[in-house]
Amino acid sequence: MTEPLTPLERRVYHYLIDFLAENTYQPSIREIAKKFRIKSTKTVSDLLGALSQKGFIQRDQSRSRGVRIVGHSGQPSTQPVPLYGGVRAGETSLHADDRTGHITVDRRFLPSDDVFFLRIKGDSMVGRGIHHDDYVMVSPSTRAKDGDIVAARIGDASAIRTMTHRGATIVLEAANESDGAIEVGQKDDFAVLGVVCGIFRPLHENTPQPMLPLSGDQPIS
What we know:
By secondary structure, the chain is α+β, with helices and mostly antiparallel strands. It has two domains: 7-69, Orthogonal Bundle (Arc Repressor Mutant, subunit A); 78-200, Umud Fragment, subunit A (Ribbon). The protein contains three helices and eleven strands, in the order αααβββββββββββ. The protein has helices at residues 7-23, 29-35, 41-53, and strands spanning 57-59, 67-69, 78-84, 99-106, 116-119, 135-139, 149-154, 157-166, 169-173, 182-184, 190-200. It has a seven-stranded antiparallel sheet, with no helix packed on it. It has a two-stranded antiparallel ribbon with strand order 1-2. β8 (157-166) and β9 (169-173) form a beta hairpin. α1 crosses α3. The radius of gyration is 20 Å and the shape is elongated.
């Protein structure tokens, strides 16, 4: 899972995306420095290094314009959002190796830089308007509170459910009469991956995408 960007890192990242869309090549380090009135080219290099370390770009140090934006399709005012296809037991966040691709989204729809997509399999949340084959956007930096729809990991399974607390027990409630609630105790291998902040329902797709089972029917030991 990618880390959130600082305000300056975000501005530079968006500048790289928009510059590439308009010019078909990336700006040089000196051009970035001029754009943001940064006196030191080392500071720019450090910013690009931070973007690379956080997984937003890849760099070729041998080239002055050696930057590749990870998952980007080339349109301005957009941002590639990673799509994940699995969860790992014992992890509090998703693993980069389980990333299956990116979906480019207009930046106006993104509440934070660290959002990611999961794809729904099952109808456990149909009562909240989330259907089989939908893509849900999840924000890991949004603090989950009672009543929020969350993406949760239980062991090596996952679920999209409405979260509530009952004393020391966390209850993940379905929105389908055929699916029961999941109760999570303090000793269970459990993590909230983030709060659902968007639902996307394509009516046509040219390329099938892998689905992450999110029915929430996995038993808890």
